Amino acid sequence: MEQKQDHCCNGGSRRNFIKKTTALTALSIVPSAIIKAGEHHEAIASYMEKTPVQLEINGKPYKVLVDPGVSLLDMLRENVGLTGTKKGCDQGHCGACIVHVDGKRVNSCLSEAVDNNGKKITTIEGLAEGDKLHPMQEAFIKHDAFQCGYCTPGQIMSGVACIREGQAGSPDEIKEFMSDNICRCGAYPNIVAAITEVKNSGQKI
Amino acid sequence: MNNKIKFFETDNDDDRVDGIDKVTGRAKYTADHMLENMAYAVFVTSTVAKGAIKSMLLHEARNAPGVLDIIYYQNCPPVPGYRPYAKDPAKKGFEWRGLKVFDNNLVYYYGQPIALVVATTWEKAVKAASLVKAEYITEAFETDFETLRKNEKKLKPAGQYKRGEEDAWKNAEVSIEAEYFTPIETHNPIELHATIAVWEGDDKLTVYDKSQGPKGTQSELARNFGLDEKNVRVITKFVGGAFGSALRSWPHVPAACIAAKVVKRPVKLVLNRRQMFTMVGYRPQSWQKISIGATKEGKLTGITHHAISNTSRYEDFREGIVNAAQFLYECPNVNTSYKILPLDINTPTWMRGPGEATGAFALECALDELAYKLNMDPVELRIKNYAEVHPVSKLPWTSKFLKECYAAGKEMIGWHKRPSIPRSLQENGMLVGYGMAGGVFGAGRGNATVKAILKNDGTLILQSAVSDMGPGTATTMVKVAAEVMQMPASKIKFQLGDTDFPPGPTQGGSTTTSTLGSGVSIACEALKQALKELARTIIPSFSTIAAEELGIADGYVVSKKDSQQKISFTELLQKAGKPEIEVIKESTRATAEFQKYAMNSFSAHFVKVHVHPTTGAIALKQIIATGDGGKIISEKTARSQMIGGAVGGIGMALTEEALIDHTTGKYITDTLGKYQVPRHRDVPFIETYFPNKPDPIINPMGSKGVGEIALVGFAPAVANAVFNATGKRVRSLPIKPEHLI
Predict the structure, then answer these.
(1) Which of A91, A190, A191 sits opposite B273 (nearest CB)?
(2) Low-confidence ranges of chain B (pLDDT < 50)
(3) For the whole prediction, is pTM greater than 0.90?
(4) A91 contact B CB<8A
(5) What is the pLDDT of residues B300-331, one digit of tens each?
(6) E strands within chain A?
(7) Is the Cβ of A112 closer than 8 Å to some Cβ of chain B?
């Protein structure tokens, strides 16, 4: 029943992308008629409206066709199939959707997908190296820095950035610079303990 | 002071069994499921608080790109469960609970779902939903709790209790009387409520749903759509927090099912954050009045507790606000009354610690006020009135170690530093205060069925149709099984979140560990028996040994007389030619025994606060959360639950308040920007303590549960500390700086 979305194309499916763009060009002379063309023309109509975005996600090149107005968050989840990044509010209040864009933490719900052309994105799925967890992921497990786990991808991405930014010098500093990430289960003290441990270990993250 | 607990001598530590899934993004929450040909649904919601829809203007939305259909009251297919009694009068009372979405044109509150746009993508559904317009016939509405609660005619009785003399506090040597207010609090788990519905033909439904009880959701949906339960499958692999909001199916669940039926495609419906305020319940607001009388020595002589909380116009909701006043302390004369006030807003529901937390704010603050009036230490006052038997039922408790909690809390926080005169201690220019309060919640045990499958590679799989909103159900259950089976936890898997598994309980009311743990324990015991029997049947050297002379340890069936005579599970199953051996066992509530006892978990919270003398800014500096939850099975996850309850309590005490604009009926605080939940900077280091004494009666593990007591009694501890720091008694939550300057 589960299906991997194929709206994205990397490597081998480049040909499909070109095929679609060619069809798109051919049809572009009669846009309004096609867009309203009813259900069986739905696929054609939706390609008409899409914009290609070329970017790198977790070290791999992607070309993604997205509707205008699609957020980076929804593109990652719905088009690329990387559902580790979570939607908590879609308003930039909760931090569940935080990813790294060119190394900086960003609320992906507030970023338009099309504005990420040429950028390097790292999501929670790209943090571990194969089966070897990132030190922050290990520390989160060790310190039980989550309960339900839903805000966790955002907390971890934010925690890694917090250290890289040099804003993890003390528990109080960590608390201040992690305050854009809500944890409704209330694992805050454990999250701070996890980040502190990774910071103090001196590991390069 | 902290007891270091090693419950089971197994090879694992307390790390969560689903930890790797959760830190790598592999854990699949409801909205993470992507199905072939899936359509997306978005609600249109009412923009008036009361009345009826006169007309819906759908033309523009219907013609918007990607729109598959728009469902509303005029085209919604019949839902059998909305009026089951139309065909069968015996089914009165079995209809869909609460709002029957798209059933008619009536509007009961602002933000009510009135139409559902289904489109090929979420963005297109959102766009089209914005184009739907409704015209209404409006009526006058009522949302102002504070004004309306004073009008007795508007209230509905919801319970009364009396023992001894009514209002005996009036004749006491020392007494206090005070009114307390608590606002609407919303659960707001970070995972948005979501449902994906898939029909196969007309009679088979699969639903991915954020649910605290997949079995409950299955039976609600089967009834609602007139299906056999076996033809409804509910899948809930991970739940991103809920705190009560997913205890029942709200209208978006049938709405997604209706939509999937109409468009003949899988439909995903995810609420937005604003809808999390108006569609999935909340802790109702309350007014309470408490009067307590005592002797000069501090013996309680009378407690009177009156409470009113709100409900909706279309459904009654009541909870245990006045319960603790009846039984937490020994007192000969107690009377309570509880009433509910219907308002034109959505229906409330249980939120963590539910009514008990609301009631504890009033009761535990009032006791603190009494302690000052008596010039007595508040802990001493509680110990002086410690109930040794349940004051209502007069039954002994199965276990009660609240005194141990008081003692530990005092020592850990340094209670001796608490000034007995308010506003008399300063630290670095800040006013310092210490406060404490207690909490109580029912402990119990329901029914659970667990399947245990031992594979011939020596691994054990346990299955039950429960879900885990975060406390760590699978982690705890693996530890229970490891103990009973005397095998390494690393070889055990607990599978949940699918109604294809045997029926398990709804996760709520601090009963999961007790109920499900009993099921796991009983299933594992049965498995042990089956393994012993198998050994006696097929292994010649075991055939002469009586079953009771055989033991189970480290993956072997072993003779108790001769430990050299043993056979591994793996070898046993291979010799038997079985790939696996399986047992299913139901654990039921032991009613006869249970009737002889009272069953509760208890907590005591101790906090230290700083209050800025000029600005009134409040900072929590130290928190000690203690809880008698019986035997603690997994110290790490239990500690996290206590911490989480304290953080919830910080929100209740200092930040959380959902406000309604009484000119429109709309929530003003309808985002996580406006509705403030605690953030990292609001939370200090939190220490926990468990007496960790096994309850001898409730279940084989001796555990009672800590989820609710973690929060019950926390907010009053903060309020009492704030009084100790400032001399200002704030009786309305949340406590804000402006109350203190």
Answers:
(1) A91
(2) 1-12
(3) yes
(4) yes
(5) 999 999 999 999 999 999 999 999 999 999 99
(6) 8-9, 51-57, 60-66, 98-101, 104-107, 120-122
(7) no
